[in-house]
Amino acid sequence: MTESQIRFRRMKDLPSTHLLGTGTPMCAGCGGLEALHEIYDILGEKTVFVNAAGCMTLLSVYPFTPVRGSWLYTAMASAPAGAQGIRDALDILLERKAITAEEDLEVVVLTGDGAAYGMGLSATSGAMERNLDFVYICYDNEGYGNTGQQYSGATPHGARTATSLGSHGFGGYKKDLFSIWAAHRPAYVATVIGAEPLDLARKIEKARTLHGPRMIIALAPCPTGWDYDPKESVEIGKLAVKTGVWPLREYIDGKVVHTKMPHPRIPVEEYLMRQGRFRHLFEPQRDQQLLGEIQQRVDAYWSGIE
Amino acid sequence: MTRRLLTGNGAAAWGARLARADYIPAFPITPQTEIIESLGQWIDTGAMPGRMVTFESEHSMITAAGSAAATGVRVFSATSSQGLLYGMEMLYTVAGWRAPFVLVNVSRGLASPITLEPDHNDVLAARDCGFLQIHCATCQEVLDSILIAYRLAEDPQVRLPVIVNLDGFYLSFTREPVELPDVQACANYVGSYDAENVRFRASAPESQAVAVLGGGPYSYFRYETQLAAMNGLAVYDEVADGFAQVFGRLHGAVEAYRSEDAEYVFVMMGSFATKAKEAVDQLRNAGWRIGLLRPRLVRPFPAARWSELLAGKRGAAIIDQNLSFGMGGVLHTEIASALYGMNAVQPVLASFVGGLGGRDISPQEFFEMAGVIRDAAQRGESPPPRLLYTEDELREVRKLQAVAQVEREELAKNEPKG
Ligand SMILES: Cc1ncc(C[n+]2csc(CCOP(=O)(O)OP(=O)(O)O)c2C)c(N)n1
Ligand code: SF4
Ligand SMILES: [Mg+2]
Hints:
The complex is a heterodimer.
Chain A: H1 3-7, H2 31-43, E1 47-51, E2 70-73, H3 79-95, E3 106-112, H4 113-119, H5 121-129, E4 134-140, H6 177-182, E5 188-193, H7 197-209, E6 213-219, H8 223-226, H9 233-242, E7 248-252, E8 255-260, H10 269-272, H11 288-303
Parallel strand pairs in A: 1-2, 1-3, 3-4, 4-6, 5-6
Antiparallel strand pairs in A: 5-7, 7-8
Chain B: E1 2-6, H1 8-18, E2 23-26, H2 33-44, E3 51-54, H3 58-71, E4 76-79, H4 81-86, H5 88-97, E5 102-107, H6 121-125, E6 132-135, H7 139-154, E7 162-167, E8 176-180, H8 183-190, E9 207-208, H9 215-247, E10 254-257, E11 264-267, H10 273-285, E12 290-295, E13 297-299, H11 303-310, E14 315-320, H12 330-339, E15 348-353, H13 363-379, E16 386-387, H14 391-414
Parallel strand pairs in B: 2-3, 4-5, 5-7, 6-7, 11-12, 11-14, 14-15, 15-16
Antiparallel strand pairs in B: 1-8, 6-13, 10-12
Helix pairs in contact in B: 1-2, 1-7, 3-5, 7-9, 11-12
Bound molecules: thiamine diphosphate (TPP), iron/sulfur cluster (SF4) and magnesium ion.
Iron/sulfur cluster is lined by residues 26-27, 30, 32, 55, 141, 145, 220, 222-225 of chain A.
């Protein structure tokens, strides 16, 4: 058993004090905020968040912020470069003994999927290739949420978005960012979800103890963009895992390990039918072909693993 | 003090070294690359402390420059042309962070068409971003201006990043004798960077660059930046005077060459102004009372200084090495606005655009421009703006077009029919 598993053996080992302040302008039931809460409790307040344009940018609106540590808003494309500047500057100050080790901070990039899968991918690739010592948290709500949920490189096949309103929804396929990141051979890559807090805690704890690029993608159920009742967020998150749509996995030392096998896997429909963005697959009539295709893709993924 | 033959790029690298820059985010682009290569070599061989990181774009490079400065280290960076524009979003962004650093821009014309040679459209595209701007005409000035720029940028009244501009090729690759100031004297002059409350530390959590809601707070922060930039006028004079006291070279906000008793002046920035100086000397020999005024400090713009310097002149020929399409020369507009409503006799202004993409401006053209401004002053009326171009140049372009046409016809002939 690894150390991170030892610290978080069961649910009651999870932190009971919460660091992220309340009263933010995020939507009720925001799955991204749920994940961030859980992550922040483990990373702690000796952190500086380097944020890219997206929903979370509105966490810190002058003069308020829910974070107890530090924060820098950059732009949509270059948060990892902002992280590099801070990390390098802190290292220079440490080397010169201009600050003590107690003053050091963990540098944490916080972006949405639009930035992570698209506009900021080149900056992220650069940061990994330079082996930057940082944590990257991508909250993946599968679209450009802040601008009204247009499709992004993370939008799943068939989903209705503000820019895919046709009867078959989004025609493209969700990009495999986990594998793109892992191909850089960084220190750590993991997928998490707020609805599986124990799995999340173990992974963040592991990331905390490593050095180099530690890359986290949190699937972020989004009541506003996915069109469902905010109280369903946790349930939808659990279904994403149980149906096998969101594989919980990690990459470390050149190997990919699945941390939670959905056994038995329940049909993808159970996940899709709870969300308005997939309603056209069921109404006015069932789109058997598209449903079949989505199920088949999930099956194909797991057939290589189970 | 030692004298050396240095290129403009070499002088820029020495400026960063003598200012003891801690951190150098970099990205290659002609004609700037020699700057980061020199700095990289010094750091690799231990000749200079500091850390250089090559980013994957100028957008990232400027972001990191800003965030490192916002963490409290002294930052230097350099770019040119397409690179400056690629980073444009971040130029505006980091200026708002109020984290001071120095960015050298080696001017080069912008695409399209793509070219390597200089003009000022790149740096003037960054005119309104919040970076202050110093423009150089000699290699010595490049080195000196970087030292001055750190004092200006880091002054508590200012706290804004500064662009130091030099022209590609004409300065970047031209060797001139440059006096390397004493290392210790430079260290004393520039001082160490006291980041005050601009920093990230575990014991003092800070949220920087957060969002605002509404025009009230937004305007407040934008106006603060404007006031800080305007403070730069007095601070610039102070730090330039301080520099002159220590190093014996005065680099004023505006360089005035034989202009005191002049009836007419050329107004020009950058290295091409040295061509204007030569023309001034020749015209003076021919009996003209003519001089040159060269803007060094372009942001903040010393408007009052300009109206003083131009008061009582009969005419000014403003030669812009840039072109704002649909309007004309940028410097012309700036000078005209500085003069409008002034209390003294105003000169007649004539606008010329020349030197785009490194195009030469010949002595004959300077004489011609002098003639145009004198005639205009006599008539008391501004002439229409002129785009400098000679019949010879037009003939050369016509030749290229003819070749292109012949080749196209040849290709069409050989194309299979069907
Ligand atoms: C360069 C640039 N282009 C466009 C935008 C507009 N914009 C702001 S947030 C956003 C969506 C970001 O999407 P994502 O990263 O997924 O974050 P989310 O909004 O979903 O939280 C966009 C397109 C911007 N801020 N900057
Ligand atoms: S739009 Fe979605 S991701 Fe954005 S705040 Fe609302 S629920 Fe969260
Ligand atoms: Mg998103």
